[in-house]
Amino acid sequence: MTENSPKQFLSLSTPKTPNSVHSSSAALAMATLNHAQVQEVLHRLYAEAKENDAKVQAEEQALMATGGGTLAAATLASIQDRTFMAVAPEVGRLLYLLTRSHRPALVVEFGTSFGLSAIHLAAALRDNGFGRLITAEQSAAKASRALQHLTEAGVADLVEIRQGDAFQTLTEIGPIDLLLLDGWKPLYLPLLKQLEPALSPGCLLIADDVISMAEKMAPYLSYVRDPANRYVSSEIPLDDGLELSIR
Predict the structure, then answer these.
(1) 8-24 in b/e burial notation, b at 16+ Cβ within 10 A?
(2) Alpha helix (H) ranges present in 103-169?
(3) Ranges of H-type helices in the chain
(4) Contact status, residue 85 vs residue 113, Cβ threshold 8 Å
(5) What are the domain boundaries of the chain?
């Protein structure tokens, strides 16, 4: 996902409008996550993801079998561009709840993919009445689709998609109040270390796939679970596994 040579990144967003829902009125209104517009988009995308990812996985396994267990870089990139790798619906709802309760002014996400997690995060920001989401995605194709889905859900005005190498696109930002790591697993720890100076006191870290990809996640988990690094961390055994950390 990273590249050695510097490059500019593409920022995809819709014109911003004030997120002016007040807490008193928000308490009386239906949660944005439950709005028909949002639910229609999520239901459609989860159905598409289930069918699509099964086909792509079968294609990958067939190519691995004929290729001696390895895939060319271009082939792997093509497969990843077409795979949703979406957070499970229950994980999405947890992301919504954590964002509502933590009330972050700035949420940063590593790994936009097709935008399902971003929809949950942005829906929570809408209901909080303030805050914005900056989300980083290496794939131009995925970034474009994510913006389309966020627009369909009616929450794109709260989101800035930065397409490109996250180590370059996620610079000069902060303070970060909530950080979601759901991209290329070996990059979690180096990206966290780069972003640590921008983390606000009490920033909530959420790392996905800590159980399903435990081996690749080991360096990150060792770091956030070491008290010397000033984090308090706990595993949440939900779907592929989440690690919640705070300091």
Answers:
(1) ebeebbeeeeebebeee
(2) 116-128, 140-153, 166-169
(3) 23-26, 36-66, 73-82, 89-102, 116-128, 140-153, 166-169, 188-195, 214-224
(4) yes
(5) 36-82, 87-246
184: exposed, middle or buried (C-beta count within 10 Å: 0-12, 13-18, 19+)? middle
Q: Which residues pair with 233 in a beta bridge?
A: 245
Exposed, middle or buried, 173 (CB in 10 Å: 0-12/13-18/19+)?
middle
Adjacent-strand bridge partners of 179 = 108, 205
- How far apart (Å, rounded) are the C-alpha atoms in residues 206 and 202? 13
Four-CA torsion 175, 87, 98, 245, nearest 10 degrees: -60
| Angstrom distance (rounded) from CA 95 to CA 101 | 10
Architecture of the domain spanning 87-246: 3-Layer(aba) Sandwich (3.40)
Global confidence as pTM: 0.84
Q: In what helix (H) or strand (E) does residue 245 lie, and over which residues does it extend?
A: strand 242-246
Mean pLDDT split into 10-residue runs, the chain, 247 residues: 45 56 54 97 91 67 67 59 78 98 98 96 98 96 95 98 97 96 95 98 97 95 98 97 97
Dist CA 147 CA 144 (whole Å): 5
Nearest Cα residue to 165 out of 139, 193, 199: 139
Q: Shortest CA distance to 183 belongs to which of 87, 57, 67?
A: 87
